[in-house]
């Protein structure tokens, strides 16, 4: 699959853009385990043009993680165009437009998936940004606002006509947020529309290597995107890529190996931020990691792990887990 001159190979697996998750350290780790392209956390166009320092930091990308996409969101055309030009100076491989974020503070203000209620504005923003920058522009969106307004099939054509070079579709409506099951049937319908010429990337509930293979085979997508399934499990890319290439499951990764990966996540997070913020940031990965699921009588240890505030405290708990639950 290619996006302009960026060759992502056959059946590429991408790391989804996720707020407070896809920072540089996590992107590099997922890249190391086989992610074919990674995305930054989404960047507020408003904050970017106001030069908010925390937002500007999100534009920091490295050559080691390429190809990398920077994703922006906003509801105003001029603001999005100005932000796109700022992003272009950071030299990402791709600029992605976020028309899919469902959270209230974004969608409720008319940005992200809020633009699914204002398609003319979405298309106006897309056309203007495509015309303003030289790098490839892509879009990530959802099936529609709610079950009664699943508009993605005609919308995909309209976005293509604006000049985007790939489209990622999350198989849920805005109303669903992240609940229920992702519906891939409409993603497949977009892909199989003979009028579509650009790559279609499917997103939503890709949690196992087998499901990844099924999404390629059954729906014909050009690529798949992994989001929440990577929390505390960056090795999912290693598992998926192995299965796609060999048709066989990767031999089980040892408890110790996966524990070392989580420890590295903690170290990287602290190095990127500082001890307090780094530990706060990595908690969601530790909380979500499948490594600890199914361990008997683990509740008190989990609570302690998620309450730890210093590296010394957290490392002591991780040592306790290795000694008592490792195999």
UniProtKB/TrEMBL annotation:
EC class: oxidoreductase
PROSITE patterns: UPF0034
Reactions catalysed, as given in the entry: a 5,6-dihydrouridine in tRNA + NAD(+) = a uridine in tRNA + NADH + H(+); a 5,6-dihydrouridine in tRNA + NADP(+) = a uridine in tRNA + NADPH + H(+)
Keyword Flavoprotein: yes
Annotated active site: 101
Entry binding sites for FMN: 71, 140, 170, 227-228
Residue ranges of every copy of the DUS-like FMN-binding domain listed in the record: 14-304
The protein's Enzyme Commission number: 1.3.1.-
First and last residue of the signal peptide: none
Keyword list, A-Z: Flavoprotein, FMN, NADP, Nucleotide-binding, Oxidoreductase, RNA-binding, tRNA processing, tRNA-binding
Physiological role: Catalyzes the synthesis of 5,6-dihydrouridine (D), a modified base found in the D-loop of most tRNAs, via the reduction of the C5-C6 double bond in target uridines.
Protein name: tRNA-dihydrouridine synthase
Provenance organism: Phocaeicola coprophilus DSM 18228 = JCM 13818
């Amino acid at each position: 699959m290619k996006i302009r001159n960026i060759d992502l190979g056959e059946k590429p697996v991408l790391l989804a853009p996720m707020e407070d998750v896809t920072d540089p350290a996590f992107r590099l780790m997922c890249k190391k385990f086989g992610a074919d392209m990674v995305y930054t956390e989404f960047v507020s166009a408003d904050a970017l043009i106001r030069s908010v320092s925390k937002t500007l930091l999100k534009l920091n990308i490295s050559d080691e993680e390429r190809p990398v996409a920077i994703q922006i969101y906003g509801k105003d055309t001029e603001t999005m165009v100005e932000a796109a030009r700022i992003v272009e100076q950071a030299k990402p491989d791709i600029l992605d437009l976020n028309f899919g974020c469902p959270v209230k503070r974004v969608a409720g203000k008319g940005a992200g998936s809020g633009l699914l209620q204002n398609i003319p504005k979405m298309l106006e923003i897309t056309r203007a940004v495509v015309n303003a920058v030289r790098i490839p522009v892509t879009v990530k969106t959802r099936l529609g606002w709610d079950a009664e307004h699943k508009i993605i099939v005609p919308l995909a054509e309209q976005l293509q006509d604006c000049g985007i070079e790939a489209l990622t579709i999350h198989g849920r409506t805005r109303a669903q947020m992240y609940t229920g099951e992702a519906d891939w049937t409409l993603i497949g319908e977009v892909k199989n529309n003979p009028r579509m010429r650009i790559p279609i990337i499917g997103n939503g509930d890709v949690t196992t290597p087998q499901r990844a293979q099924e999404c390629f085979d059954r729906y014909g997508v050009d690529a798949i995107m992994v989001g929440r399934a990577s929390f505390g499990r960056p090795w999912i890319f290693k598992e998926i890529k192995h299965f796609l290439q060999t048709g066989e499951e990767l031999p089980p990764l040892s408890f110790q190996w996966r524990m070392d990966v989580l420890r590295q996540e903690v170290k990287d997070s602290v190095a990127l931020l500082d001890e307090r913020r780094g530990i706060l940031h990595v908690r969601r990965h530790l909380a979500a990691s499948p490594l600890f699921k199914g361990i008997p009588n683990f509740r008190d240890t989990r609570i302690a792990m998620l309450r730890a505030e210093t590296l010394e405290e957290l490392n002591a708990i991780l040592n306790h887990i290795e000694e008592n639950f490792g195999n």
